Amino acid sequence: MRRRHSALALLSLLLSACASAPPASTPPVQSGAQRRYSGRLALSLAADSPSARHAKGGSAGFELLGTPQAGVLSLISPLGTLMARVRWSAQQAWLQQGAEDEQLYDSMDALLAQLLGEALPLAALFDWLHGQPWSGAAHDAVEPQAFVQLGWRVDLRRMAEGLLVASKLGPNPTEPLAVLRVKLDQD
Question: How many domains, in total, are found in the chain?
Answer without folding.
Answer: 1
